[in-house]
Amino acid sequence: xxxxxxxxxxxxxxxxxxxxxxxxxxxxxxxxxxxxxxxxxxxxxxxxxxxxxxxxxxxxxxxxxxxxxxxxxxxxxxxxxxxxxxxxxxxxxxxxxxxxxxxxxxxxxxxxxxxxxxxxxxxxxxxxxxxxxxxxxxxxxxxxxxxxxxxxxxxxxxxxxxxxxxxxxxxxxxxxxxxxxxxxxxxxxxxxxxxxxxxxxxxxxxxxxxxxxxxxxxxxxxxxxxxxxxxxxxxxxxxxxxxxxxxxxxxxxxxxxxxxxxxxxxxxxxxxxxxxxxxxxxxxxxxxxxxxxxxxxxxxxxxxxxxxxxxxxxxxxxxxxxxxxxxxxxxxxxxxxxxxxxxxxxxxxxx
Length: 351
Prior knowledge:
This protein is α/β, with parallel strands linked by helices. The protein contains 13 helices and 7 strands. The chain has helices at 3-7, 70-76, 78-84, 106-116, 129-142, 145-156, 171-178, 181-194, 219-246, 259-277, 292-300, 316-328, 339-350; strands at residues 34-37, 40-46, 53-57, 64-68, 99-101, 196-197, 203-204. It has a 5-stranded mixed β-sheet with strand order 1-2-4-3-5. α2 (70-76) packs across α3, α2 crosses α4 (106-116) and α11 (292-300) runs antiparallel to α12. The relative contact order is 0.08.
């Protein structure tokens, strides 16, 4: 486990360890605690047996109240530290004031609290995709991604395969939050291949019935830019094969007879096929609304004819290989404008 990370988490919550500008700790009594709010009763869960603050998480019937150490919380998150610092203007910074996170979910925040309070045995063995996504959202909100990283490989082991399936596009946000470059590039490659655009050039991400709520900033523009670059490469391949015929001073047919007729058959069937796919020479890439994968599949279905018996003139295999190479995405730089973000995270987590 990461030594520097653990060093940043307090192992003691005794009053003498508190900074001078923090108010004195007032320990919450550990009998069964409840808070009356109308007809609702909220039981207090003691994350820290010597907790000096109450933290209420969630809204209405989902609420839970935790007894926590303000010292542990302030060291786990710079956002929480600001909330608890009496020199800041947060209401929560007032001595003894309760903390309220009404927009968060108790199970998610409890994971962060257990890590912050060194309650590692209480952490879950596995997380479902939705649970990991909620944790990423909370880590992004409270700047606690570094706190979670030591357990990330364990929690992603059983669900990482879903990153390459439609409906799990929010893996991009998880990868972006925790600095998982390989997963980020995996999902980006799939979306570059499978996303379409509408009549106005807007990105349409295949969602498989799931709503996509959490995505990295600027990700749609990055996908569109990379998609355009890939389509331009595909267009360049098509143009290259067309120009073989148009720029040749003589027939390119390798047969011993009927060479001009063979060229005419190949050239004519190639142009006709490209027009059917709407990617013939001179096509404006912005008018292509199909996904990259659909364009490649249609191009691979083209029939490039040759004169009977001229098997040596068949260029279809070469054409398909060139298209497959582009579709593989191995030559694409997919992080684009997000490169600096991952560099910053790498330096931060290396400390």
